[in-house]
Amino acid sequence: MADRYAHTGHPCGLTSVTGVSPGNFRRGKEGAGLSRLRAEGLLETIIAGHLGNAPDIAELVGENKAAGYLLPLGVMMHLLRAAAGKKPGVVTQVGLGTHADPRNEGCKANKKAVLQNREVVKLLHIGEQEYLYYPSFPIDVCLIRGTYADVSGNISMTHESLDEAQLQMAAAVHNGGGIVIVQVEDVVEERSLPARSVRIPRSMVDYYVKAQPEYQKQFYASERLYHGEMTGEICCPAEAIESMPLNTRKVIARRAAKELKPNCLINLGIGLPSGVGNVANEEGVAQEMTLSLESGVFGGVPLPGDGFGGAVNPESILSAADTFDLYDGGILDMTFLGAAEVDQYGNVNVSRFGTRCTGPGGFINISQSTSKVIFMLNFTSGQPDIACQKGQLQIHRDGGGMKFVKKVQQITFSGDYARKKKQSVTYITERAVFQLTEEGLMLVEIAPGTDLRRDILDHMEFLPLIAKDLKTMDRSIFTDAKIGLTLQ
What is the pLDDT of residue 303? Predict the structure, then answer.
């Protein structure tokens, strides 16, 4: 499509619909996935849950070159099911008080979206409760991926590390009279696929395409075509999973890991939170809990970076749509999520920064439906020089940007909504730990080796509440040795 548009100018003015955008975080010529469609004019409208993996497309939205609508990821998944079942849409409380709320931005990410006059979310009242209504819409074509197609068109997901929403996409498009195209690793004889391995029946499939091997890698972080330890086919020894080096990322992950409880179900977000699983594995407690990702993976150790979404040694792999049913219903005991900005009201922004529009992903569904929420972030932005020495944090040069601001640029998590729901909310950095209280954000711990005024308060745009019994963070998390983590 990208090559054809470059040569002929067609197709053009398309609307792209995606949950988490496929891509490898890279800009320009090295970009993959949705970033291939970055030429201005090819895409007119983008409806997505998250664009972080395709920064070129996020840039189109941020620079107002394509209309952008950024919805909670769980809502996107459930909209596919609504479209498949010819239902009017999704009614949920997910998004209240955030940028998705029509009293704020109504999911419209730029001026082009505002000028289109398209309402992707509306406020409803049922009884005395507020809800958001996200109308469903038709989709003409879907491009999805599986492992094998038999000659009749049955699709197996045998080598896929994620089921994501391929079935829901195919059903939504097929039942709306559209075209379903599936990329596969290979084509096999009719009825040679075990019935339970077929995730998309042939009646939904219009075309299958056998891909060249270089286009069928299991995930972007590896050149190998297939990793059996990511599908449950084989189990990788725990000691084979590389531990994190001692740096601020590991300090934050260690402090966060101290919040873990035995026999609990946990969600880990992208970025810093993925380190919690690594620490739990290193400390030998990973088997005492179940880690999960909104991509549908339960159990195992989540991969960081370009591999995020998959896990080594998963216990089960569900579809993302089914997983969000469980998450929205409150199945999680706690969640660890990243944060880019935090303000004096406890609001968090992870979705928009100036002209960078990444979208919320599953952040809103998860953070609003979980009783215990732990946010993880570096205290400042930029290029600080920070080391851990002798059980203390040594700040040789601090980052130039502030992350604790008076007002976040966009509300992806509402502190006020969390207080109303009586959620337990903690904010963990490498040098300070905060709690959300009825009165506002309260500083409850600081790192050994830091000065309260010089290293913390002077790098915040507001003065937080300070706990009367302000504690020092555990010195063990600032050392090379294991911290002796036990779950209580």
Answer: 82
Q: Exactly one of 185, 283, 294, 445 is catalytic; name it.
A: 294
Indicate the pTM of the whole model.
Answer: 0.94
- Output the furthest CA–CA distance in the chain (Å, rounded): 71
Q: What is the mean pLDDT of the chain?
A: 95
DSSP letter for 452, please.
Answer: I
Q: For 185-273, where are the E strands, in sequence order? A: 186-188, 198-200, 207-210, 265-268
Q: What percent of the chain has pLDDT over 70?
A: 100
Cβ–Cβ under 8 Å, residues 358 and 384:
no
Average pLDDT over residues 86-92: 98
What backbone torsions phi and psi does residue 180 show, to the nearest 5 degrees?
A: -110, 120
Band of residue 39 on the pLDDT scale cut at 50, 70, 90:
very high
Beta strand pairing call for 372-376 and 334-338: parallel
Helices in 296-359 by DSSP H: which ranges? 320-328
The whole-number pLDDT of residue 139 equals 98
Report residue 204's pLDDT band, with 50, 70 and 90 as the boundaries.
Answer: very high
The b/e string for 419-430 (b: 16+ C-beta within 10 A; e otherwise) is beeebebbbbbb
Q: Are 348 and 408 in contact (CB under 8 A)?
A: yes
Cα dist from 426 to 82, 338, 357, 429, whole Å: 35, 12, 25, 10
- For the chain, domains (ranges, CATH) are 2-135 (3.40.1080.10), 141-214 (no CATH), 238-478 (3.40.1080.10)
Q: How far apart are CA 72 and CA 107, in angstroms?
A: 9
Looking at 219-228, 322-331, 342-351, which range is the least confident one?
Answer: 219-228
What string of DSSP letters covers 53-102?
T-HHHHHHHHTTSSEEEE--HHHHHHHHHHHHTT--EEEESTTTTSTTST
- Contact 69/315 with Cβ under 8 angstroms? no
18: helix, strand or coil: strand
Q: What is the mean pLDDT of residues 351-369?
A: 94
Per-residue pLDDT band at 372 (split at 50, 70, 90): very high
Residue pair 119/430 in contact by the 8 Å Cβ criterion:
no
Query: Could you confirm whether 259 is annotated as catalytic?
Result: no
H helix or E strand, kind and range, residue 290: strand 290-292
Cβ neighbourhood burial of 31 (10 Å; 0-12, 13-18, 19+): buried
286 in helix, strand or coil? helix
233 Cβ contact list (under 8 Å, min separation 6) = none
Residue 257: both structure tokens together: 């890991």
Distance CA 316, CA 297 (A): 6
